[in-house]
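Exercise 7b. Backbone tokens:
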């Protein structure tokens, strides 16, 4: 256990770093590492690339990540591998001075084609820069009017896509943060109270499994494809039921509730499911 800054508590205290990766399309956590030390955090992204290569036989086509689990040298390695990446650049005093000293004529307004987003017209300075330990030019975007008090600084090796598409792509990272917020609030991911790393790693793994199961449930229910886990639990799982157990089957009869008709409409309750740890009894789901 090392000392880290915890933004939720606004203080530094003994804690453990957890690296999580989420698939952009399915919104399912596909990778985690709960035994990350400060001295190893710069290798977290490259470790994920190795995992992806082993699991799928190819490199991930694109990565969007925070600035902490990498360095400029690691970005250079990703670029050499041919992986498109996008990350934040830390707002150092020099970067903030650069933003303040950039003339108004250098900024241009771009439109983000995201209908429900409040801030759709940020101002951007899009240019190529040189970084220490990085071979060749890299694209840097200074962005204001994006909904934050401080400017956002993006780094990417995608030199061709328009600034509006790159910013929109980065904005999807907020969905990952929403998933983390759901894991914290519903699964209590930030309450891993153990000094044994193996226990915390196991807890994070169970959180991944539970989150994936909720995502599978949500995708089968009309209108709940993007619902958070706590909403699915409240509407469909946190409910009383009548349970009858016999030698061969377990019948669960759900009462009439406003959201329950969505379950048989999604083919829940069709047939029965054998449960090995119930001595082979079959689970049958019924609705009133």
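Sequence design result:
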């Amino acid at each position: 256990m090392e000392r880290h800054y915890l933004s939720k508590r606004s203080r530094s205290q003994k804690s453990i770093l957890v690296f999580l990766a989420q698939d952009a399309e399915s919104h399912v956590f596909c990778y985690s590492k709960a035994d990350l030390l400060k001295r190893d955090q710069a290798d977290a992204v490259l470790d994920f690339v190795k995992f992806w290569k082993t699991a799928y036989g190819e490199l991930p086509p694109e990565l969007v990540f925070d600035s902490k689990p990498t360095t400029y040298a690691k970005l250079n390695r990703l670029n050499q591998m041919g992986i498109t990446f996008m990350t934040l650049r830390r707002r150092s005093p020099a970067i903030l001075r650069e933003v303040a000293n950039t003339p108004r004529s250098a900024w241009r307004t771009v439109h983000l084609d995201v209908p429900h987003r409040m801030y759709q017209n940020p101002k951007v300075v899009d240019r190529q820069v040189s970084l220490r330990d990085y071979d060749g030019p890299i694209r840097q975007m200074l962005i204001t009017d994006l909904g934050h008090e401080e400017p956002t600084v993006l780094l990417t090796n995608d030199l061709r896509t328009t600034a509006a598409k790159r910013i929109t792509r980065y904005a999807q990272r907020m969905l990952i943060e929403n998933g983390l917020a759901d894991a914290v609030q519903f699964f209590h991911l930030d309450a891993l109270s153990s000094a044994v790393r193996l226990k915390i790693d196991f807890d994070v793994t169970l959180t991944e499994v539970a989150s994936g199961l909720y995502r599978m449930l949500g995708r089968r229910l009309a209108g709940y494809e993007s619902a958070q886990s706590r909403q699915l639990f409240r509407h469909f799982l946190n409910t009383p039921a009548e349970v009858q157990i016999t030698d061969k089957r377990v019948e669960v009869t759900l009462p009439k509730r406003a959201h329950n008709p969505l379950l048989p409409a999604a083919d829940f309750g069709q047939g029965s499911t054998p449960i090995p740890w119930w001595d082979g009894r079959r689970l049958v789901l019924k609705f009133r």
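Instructor comment: The radius of gyration is 23 Å. The mean pLDDT is 86.
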